[in-house]
Structures are given as structure tokens and as C-alpha cells.
Amino acid sequence: MKALPAPRSAAIPKSWSNLDWASVFAAIIYPALGVLGLIAAAIIGWSFSGVTLVWWYIPLALFTGAVTLVICNVGIGVMHRVWQHKAGELRWPAQVITAFNCVVAMQGKLKDWVNYHSQHHRLSDRPGDPHNPAEGKLWAWMGWLFWRDPNDLKRPMAMWLRENRSVVIFDRHYSLITILVHLVAPALIYLAVWLLGGSLILTLILHASAIVARGVQFHATILGINVFGHLKTPAWADYLLALLTGGEAFHDHHHDEPRSALHLPRRGLINRLVDYNGTALLIFEKLRWARNLEIAPQFASQPRLTAR
């Protein structure tokens, strides 16, 4: 019988010298900057008479955050279900949207994402699983991101992704595209608002709200799925996490039916609102941007909502 690998949390050295600062920035520093931006906007608005804060900034900020969260989830969910588990095929418009949304979500190179997730399914909850919650909930949440085995990052791109030009291009230029999306584009928006005489304080609030929402989505995914997804949780927690992850948090189902494009039944408004990553795939299919979607038999036509 083949021996299992050593537990990752014990085998990977943990020190400041091998800390993955890109992951630290995505998980902690960038969301904190968003919170500081909202605090700064409130202080400026209340401290300077020439700056106006209007009540409708709040619902607009919440809407901006919600849209950002959905964009991030649709990128991760579609990538996860199609490019990881081969639940269908995407044509180039859906490929570009998916890859771009993954950049917005700060998911890193898709090569590494797929390789890590492949190990997770192969060794789920056993030694060698990159984020095995049995090795510690904090490790399964963020430790595995902060301290990486260099050999993991040297793994080649999965064979089935090498023929996908969108994945190859986005991975090859990931750092540049990330800088353009998260730094250059916001700077140009601030400049345009200033030149046009718009409200910079509103721009700051909306920008900060988008950053915070991306952070919420980021942690809902790595904490809600890697940790809570492998524990016994009440149904209300499953559906709350599903809303924050686009349906990815129905993790028991996913391990039972990894190739399913849907994580809830096809029919039913609630199903399609909660599992909106699957709904995005159905929309792509209607637009002929996706084809050959595989759906778990129990979800193909079942009209009622089923809990885990």
C-alpha cells in the first residue's frame, strides 16, 4: 500500500523568509486598506464642511460590494466547475470573463489553483491535502496560503489547460493584469472623476466597498469551504455561506458529484439565486458561450430545494 505524504502543516517550514507575501496582501493587507478607506471617507466627510456625505451613498456602497462579490464568485465558481472538474466547455467570451473575474478575486495563477485543488480532491482530509482541517482550522483557513511548498509552485500546468489560450495568456501576464485591474484602473477612475468635477469622496467609498467585498468573498471561500465545508454545520449556515460563495459552499455535494455544473436543482428561483455560479453557466449556455454542461442527475429536473 502506497504511503501517504507527510501532513503539509508539519512538512512545510514556517518563517518570515518563506512567507508568501502575495497571499498575505490578498488575504489581509488589501481588505484592511478597504476598511481604512471607508473609515477615512467617514472622517473626512464629518470633519470638513466642504465635503458632503449623503444617505444614499450607503445603499450604493452596499450594491457596489454585492456586485463585486458576485463578479468574484462567478469567476471562481465557473473556473472551478469547468476548468478544474470539466463540467462542460466554454467558448472564448466566457473564458475571458471567467479569467478576468478570477483576477478581480485575486486567485493567483490558475495553474497553481488547479494543481492545489487537484491535490485536495485526491487526498481530501488526509495527510497531503493542502488545507486539511484536521491539521488545524487556522492552517486550513490561511496557513496553507501563507506558507507554500516551492515544489507545488513548480508543478506544470494541467494538460487540459494548456490548450486554453485564455488561461495561458492570463497566467503568463497575471502580475501585469493584476496591477492594471487593482491599481492602474482605479487610479484612472479617480483622475477622470477629478477632471470631470465629480465626487472623489463617493469614488473612495465605492472603491473601498469593492475592496472590502472582495475580502469578504475571499475569506468566505477559504474559510467557509476549506474549514466549515468539511465540518457538520446547520442548514442555515450552509445557505449563508452559499450566498457568499455563489453555491460553492455546498461542499458535501461537490465531493459527491465533482463534475456537476449545478450545486442545486435546475428549477426554482431560490435555487438559481443561491447557486448563482451555476446560473451563470446556464446563462452562458443560453448565449452559446458554454456547451456540454454536466449536471448531477438529482439536480437536472428536481423542482424543490434540498438541504445538505
From TrEMBL:
GO-annotated cellular components: membrane
UniProt xrefs under InterPro entries: Acyl-CoA_DS (IPR015876)
UniProt KW Membrane keyword: yes
Transmembrane segments: 21-48, 54-76, 174-193
GO MF annotation terms: oxidoreductase activity, acting on paired donors, with oxidation of a pair of donors resulting in the reduction of molecular oxygen to two molecules of water
Bilayer disposition of the protein: Multi-pass membrane protein
Subcellular location: Membrane
UniProt keyword annotations, A-Z: Fatty acid metabolism, Lipid metabolism, Membrane, Oxidoreductase, Transmembrane, Transmembrane helix
Main location: membrane
Keyword Mitochondrion: no
UniProt record, GO biological process: fatty acid metabolic process
Family: Belongs to the fatty acid desaturase type 2 family.
Protein known as: Acyl-CoA desaturase
Record organism: Alkalicaulis satelles
